[in-house]
Amino acid sequence: MVPAALFLAAFVAWPIVRLVMNSFYDISPIAGGPRTFVGLGNYTTALASSGFRSSAVRTLAYTVLVVSAEFVLGLATALLFSAIGRRSAVFRTIFMYPLMIAPVVAGLLWRFLLIDNSGIVNTLLARVGILHSASDIGWLSNSRIVLFSVAIPDIWLTTAFMALVLFAGLQNIPGDVIEAARLDGAKGWTLLRRIIVPLLRPVIAVTLIVRGIDAAKAFDIILIQTGGGPENASQTLSLLIYRTMVRFGEPGLASAMATMYLLVMLAVAVAAVVTIWRPGADA
Q1: Which of 100, 149, 186, 229 could disulfide-pair with 139, CB 3.0 to 4.6 Å?
Q2: Is 186 helix (H, G, I), strand (E, B) or coil?
């Protein structure tokens, strides 16, 4: 316990404390530079910034899109694997392959697939006659659809994680409960909504929290595809905090943004546990 506590204190607790402390200062980007206490000034500046507010909205939209798609696809896949039984072992192994790919590699791969004019997706759509030319759809250059486009690699990459965890949860549902529900006339949607999903609440809560936080802090997979463009249309909070810190040289402001992000993520995680898991409630 002591080594683990020391590890958490050194690599988790202390960085968070430093982050919160820095958010109250105007800090020079130069090492050893001056630090000026500004109180809540950085928070006021961040909240008054249209860039911060729009990035927050994009982060929320991106997270909801990614997590919702992954949950629906993951649950459907898990139910399919469970229905197939042991014969699904090979398919499960193949389905897990995307998890072995680094997000940067996945982002680069999908950039080549979706890039304007020469992208493989548009080229194939043009050849089969769906598009007139390979430049008809600007997946990564059209500000109206770019957020959806950069979400595709994330969904492709981590749906397997969602399916794997939900499949493991399905294996822990007693078979006699399902059989009794079927004998009582429960079928299809009723069985899923009344029996399976309630029994999967703890697993669903964990998967949604883990993937929600992971999707909300998406950075590398977006940076490698669009760099936050065009016109900041795919810039999420992680990219904004990075740019504020590295490009604009404002560590104090970046710390304030990161602190607010951390608090919101904590609140969302608690809300997910209370509303989805409902510890102590009857299934």
Answers
A1: 149
A2: coil
The answer to whether residue 282 scores a pLDDT higher than 70 is no
Phi, psi (deg, nearest 5) at residue 26: -95, 110
CA angle at 238 for the pair 25 and 207, rounded to the nearest 5°: 125
Looking at the DSSP bridge assignments, the partners of residue 25 are: 37
Q: Which residues pair with 36 in a beta bridge?
A: 26
First to last CA, the chain: 34
Packing angle, helices 50-84 and 41-48, rounded to 10: 80
Q: Residue 202: which CATH number? A: 1.10.3720.10
- Indicate the helix (H) or strand (E) that contains 27: strand 25-27
pTM: 0.89
pLDDT band at 94 (very low <50, low <70, confident <90, very high): confident
pLDDT digits (tens, 9 = 90+) for 251-277: 999 999 999 999 998 898 888 778 876
CB-count burial class (<10 Å; 0-12, 13-18, 19+) for 267: exposed
Q: To the nearest whole number, what is the mean pLDDT of the chain? A: 87
